[in-house]
Design a protein that fits this description.
- The protein has 496 residues and is mainly alpha-helical.
- The chain has one domain: Up-down Bundle (Growth Hormone, Chain: A).
- The chain is built from 18 helices and no strands.
- Helix 7 runs antiparallel to helix 15.
- The longest helix is centred in the first third of the chain and has 41 residues.
- The two termini are 33 Å apart.
- Its main location: membrane.
- This is Major facilitator superfamily (MFS) profile domain-containing protein.
- Keywords: Membrane, Transmembrane, Transmembrane helix.
């Protein structure tokens, strides 16, 4: 444990709070929230199917497999209904929270994200419980509330931006973000193991009560430990600037103005191909999230069909093995690809996207459960994508644009979710009767397109020396007090 703490520590101390202390608090917080998310993910397929069976009687003279596919389609349909309401709202709200966090810090958006998860889970419990058994139409309320409050993606975006504040050195940041992704996978592992234990000893609904209690504890931890302050480098540049207290009306007004400001981040003229890279990264990330979101969300529903016929216990086993594979893949990326082979971050991003494509193809061709497990091997590098992509984006924008860029990236994730819901899930419902693995093969092809786009970014960025590997000198200039090197007078002139 001490070795892990040493690995996370940094060389300079902050006079208010050391970077390592703040970082470790963020790591533990993210581990806990991911663990709670994993609890729900494991029990959701079973609880949703039971709700569908109580709500929709199946037509007579159906075979057992036809009945399974009948309810499988209803499960996907109600996932779509949630997403159609939630995601458009979250797309706009995410930009507002991103702009707010750039000005006032990451703590408040992070806390709001956790509260939204608490409310969303409460409504799910009331729907899934046979005692309360409220109507499925309450899904729409959950979608609206969760969208307005940012849900789990707001939490993740706030954590990523918080880490970018703590570690302005981009080379250090990419390593720390990979370590955070390892913690993410550890949270998934612990969550799956605990869920399996609780389901076997008590019942499925007890898992959700455990989740709610854990969220309350995490909220208290965040409230007491994390500081509410502006991004650190902006504090250094403007140490004496007064912090005006904004009214709620002013915050809302500034929030709507920030929609334009956030979009402008991707339209400003920048040195070299940085603006083009931002757009390519955004679209490539959109395609990857288009695939990954469907793969992650559909696997629990898909494997309830023949020839797999998984129950909650089998799905929990898969969700236990999956993070182990991801942890191995991320350590391989961190130690072998990054430290030993010194591959650029963009090279590892290409490998991560291709990894997801191969995983999807393997699932699409699977005829038994062992192939589903085998697909985890080629997919193990995908965990590198999120930390390295966010790190690369910080090299393309100014310090005070990081939150806006991350928010737009989060919005792209939401838009990918809308497209995934409208396209991939409808394709799944249309093809599940004649070839249920078709949508997985399509997802593999989409990943191939995203990998090719990043290949272009890799070649040109290497020529122009853009990336975390090339930012260390700029970081040293800043911390040596050479703020003349940073031109804050013209938007778009600073390229970290």
């Amino acid at each position: 444990m001490q070795g892990l703490i040493n690995a996370l520590s940094v060389h300079k101390s902050n006079p208010i709070r050391s970077e390592s202390e703040a970082a470790c608090g963020t790591y533990h917080l993210r581990h806990g929230d991911v663990q709670r998310s994993q609890y729900r993910a494991v029990v959701k397929p079973h609880m949703t199917e039971m709700k569908m069976r109580r709500t929709y009687p199946h037509p007579e003279h159906m075979s057992p497999q036809e009945i399974k596919k009948f309810y499988n389609k209803w499960m996907v349909t109600w996932d779509q209904n949630y997403d159609y309401v939630n995601m458009p709202i979250a797309c706009v709200i995410g930009i507002l929270y991103g702009a707010y966090s750039d000005e006032r810090g990451r703590k408040i958006p992070l806390l709001i994200g956790m509260v939204s998860t608490l409310i969303d889970n409460t409504i799910s419990i009331l729907m899934w419980s046979e005692t309360t058994d409220i109507a499925l139409e309450w899904t729409y309320l959950a979608a609206v509330v969760s969208g307005l409050m940012g849900d789990f993606l707001l939490f993740m975006s706030a954590v990523n931006a918080y880490l970018a504040d703590i570690f302005p050195n981009k080379k250090t940041l990419s390593t720390r973000m990979i370590i955070v992704s390892v913690i993410f996978s550890l949270g998934s592992l612990v969550g799956s193991l605990c869920t399996k234990f609780v389901v076997e000893r008590i019942n499925h609904l007890a898992v959700m009560y455990l989740v709610q209690g854990a969220i309350v504890l995490a909220f208290g931890f965040s409230l007491g430990i994390l500081e509410r302050k502006r991004p650190s480098l902006l504090q250094e540049y403007e140490p004496d600037e007064p912090q005006a207290q904004l009214t709620l009306l002013q915050i809302c007004k500034n929030g709507f103005i920030s929609v334009y400001d956030s979009a402008k981040v991707f339209c400003l003229r920048r040195e070299g191909h940085r603006r083009l890279f931002l757009w390519i990264c955004l679209f490539a990330n959109f395609l990857d999230l288009f695939v990954f979101g469907e793969e992650k969300g559909l696997i629990g529903t898909y494997t309830r069909l023949a020839p797999f016929n998984w129950d909650t216990d089998q799905y929990a086993t898969y969700k236990t093995v999956r993070p182990i594979a991801q942890i191995i893949g991320m350590f391989f990326g961190l130690i072998v690809l990054k430290k030993l082979l010194h591959l650029r971050d963009t090279t590892q991003i290409i490998l991560a996207i291709a990894s997801m494509g191969l995983c999807a193809v393997a699932i699409g061709l699977a005829t038994s459960s062992w192939i589903i497990y085998a697909s985890l091997a080629p997919g193990s590098l995908h965990g590198l994508l999120n930390p390295l992509t966010y790190t690369f984006m910080t090299c393309l924008v100014r310090i005070d644009e990081i939150g806006k860029a991350f928010a737009i990236s989060s919005i792209a994730g939401k838009l990918a979710g809308i497209a995934q819901t409208a396209i991939l899930q409808n394709i799944y419902k249309a093809t599940v009767d004649w070839y249920q693995g078709f949508v997985w093969l399509l997802m593999g092809a989409v990943s191939g397109v995203a990998a090719v786009m990043y290949l272009y970014v890799h070649v040109v960025s290497k020529q122009e020396r853009i990336g975390a590997e090339d930012c260390e000198r700029d970081h040293e200039d800043v911390h040596d007090g050479d703020f003349d090197a940073l031109d804050y007078s013209e938007v778009g002139d600073l390229h970290l």
